[in-house]
Design goal:
Low-confidence stretches: none
Shape: globular
CATH class of the largest domain: Alpha Beta
Mean pLDDT: 96
Structural class: alpha/beta
Helix content: 25-40%
Largest sheet: 7 strands, mixed
Distance between the termini: 30 Å
Number of strands: 15
Number of domains: 2
Radius of gyration: 21 Å
CATH superfamily of the largest domain: Type I PLP-dependent aspartate aminotransferase-like (Major domain)
Bound molecules: ligand PLZ
Length: 451
């Protein structure tokens, strides 16, 4: 392993060796006991993919209460992007915790918030003047992005794409594509949300230009451009299945938005902050969004989200129109500043490219071996395979469940995705070593063989 990839936290480096270790059945006895307690007091609506209760973590390894060590191929859904208990993040957040934990920026401001806004302004695409609002969760960033775009344009319409995921609040669940489990029975939903076909090369076979023509024609016919405040896209779709749009798709959408006064919003909550080997995935597609939404990886595991947009768009909101008690918490801000520093100091964007260099060939080799792997896709440390019935594009959901269960029994935590529940995604932290990646791929190979 490139030991340097794990920026050692002195507290854990020795204690948590970067290796897979299965000591008990998964989940083990202590996890099962905890699970009993949980079932009595936590509703079934809050599910856990794998009820192995985690006690600590470092780098790319999760340790459960029974002492099992899992290779973490999900990073808490793309949150601990620079690694669990990263030394810089832990030090900065700990220091901040003892100095100022809360002041409410809308009452008494502090520097950390301003610094995070400066850093996001520098690192989001485009050199134009930008301003940033901080919130706590991804869904809150989406809510505020829509709110600001509506105020700026004086229009109501919100365009989203098929297979999109934007959150679980009332507005964002209405924007999210998949009804089950996200929105079924949780209505009524807000109106003025319009869903258009996306670019999904594996299924539609369309060029970027043709897919964009289809999206635009749909929106022009079914809504009318002049009624749209914003079009919100995930540059690489997340929960929907890691769809990488065909080349030219996003630039064509952006051009249409600009020509029609529609705010072009990139939801980079999952794809942003170094995940793909660029600060933001928009850069791979040559687009400069009017607004970028970030969350997940920006504060190394602490809750923080951000709306960063052209200054004139942000300034449309009147004083006092934006806020929230916890938005831009000082400890989260200190952690976020540390994440930016770690990315720069250790050139972590290169780590994402290194990870793709190990994962892609391994996944393509598996695809040659197993005919249920229909598609291999992704950029940097954001990759996926789509499982199909052999020789077709029909989803293979059963296989996905079996693979993930096998891997868990063998100490590898994989995440699933996809509208049809047939996508296996690989979202490891940038701290994962080549050896751990190869080990995880080896377990996956065995899982396929065992199907
Ligand atoms: N936009 C692109 O990926 C969060 C959801 C997990 P929150 N994705 C993980 C689950 O099942 O609840 C996400 C995303 C994109 C918005 C969000 C929402 O971010 O921080 O979960 O609100």
């Amino acid at each position: 392993m490139t030991d340097s990839a794990v920026r050692s936290n002195p507290k854990y480096a020795a204690e948590i060796v970067q290796e897979r270790r299965v000591l008990t059945e998964i989940p083990g006895p202590k996890s099962l006991a905890l699970h009993e307690r949980r079932l009595a007091v936590v509703p079934a609506g809050v599910n856990s993919a794998l009820p192995a209760y985690i006690e600590r973590a470092h780098g790319a390894i999760l340790v459960d209460v029974d002492g099992n060590q899992f290779i973490d191929m999900g990073a808490g859904i793309g949150v601990t992007t620079i690694g669990h208990t990263d030394h810089g993040v832990v030090a900065a957040a700990s220091e901040q915790l003892t100095r100022l934990t809360h002041a409410a920026f809308t009452i008494s401001p502090y520097e950390g918030y301003v610094r995070v806004a400066e850093l996001l302004g520098e690192h989001t695409p485009g050199t134009h003047a930008k301003k940033t609002v901080l919130q706590n969760s991804g869904a809150e960033a989406v809510e505020n992005g829509v709110k600001i775009a509506r105020k700026y344009t004086g229009r109501n319409g919100v365009a989203v794409l098929d297979h999109a995921y934007h959150g679980r609040t009332s507005l964002t669940m209405a924007m999210t594509f998949k009804a089950m489990p996200y929105s079924l029975g949780f209505g009524p939903f807000p109106g003025d949300i319009y869903r258009a076909p996306n670019s999904y090369p594996f299924h539609d076979g369309l060029s970027g230009a043709d897919a964009a023509r289809r999206t635009i024609a749909y929106l022009e016919k079914s809504v009318g451009a002049s009624d749209l405040a914003c079009l919100i896209v995930e540059p690489i779709q997340g929960e929907g299945g890691f769809q990488v749009p065909a080349e030219g798709y996003l630039p064509a959408l952006q051009e249409w938005c600009t020509a029609n006064g529609i705010v072009f919003i990139a939801d980079e909550i999952q794809s942003g902050m170094g995940r793909t080997g660029a600060y933001f995935a928009s850069e791979h597609f040559g687009v400069v969004p009017d607004m970028v939404l970030s969350a997940k990886g920006i504060a190394g595991g602490l809750p923080l989200s951000a709306i960063t947009a052209r200054a004139e768009i942000m300034d449309a909101a009147h004083p006092g129109g934006l806020g929230g008690t916890f938005g831009g918490n000082p400890v989260s801000c200190a952690a976020a500043v540390a994440v930016f520093e770690e990315i720069e100091t250790f050139d972590l964007l290169a780590e994402a490219r290194r990870i793709e260099g190990v994962l892609k060939p391994a996944l393509l080799a598996l695809q040659k071996k197993y005919d249920i792997i229909g598609d291999v896709r992704g950029i940097g440390a954001m990759n996926a395979i789509e499982l199909v019935q052999p020789g077709t594009h029909e989803p293979n959901t059963a296989a996905l469940g079996a693979l993930v269960a096998f891997a868990a029994q063998h100490g590898v935590l994989f995440l699933t995705a996809g509208t049809y529940g047939n996508v296996l995604r690989f979202l490891p932290s940038l701290a994962i070593s080549d050896e751990l990646l190869k080990d995880a791929m080896n377990v996956l190979d065995h899982a396929f063989a065992a199907l």
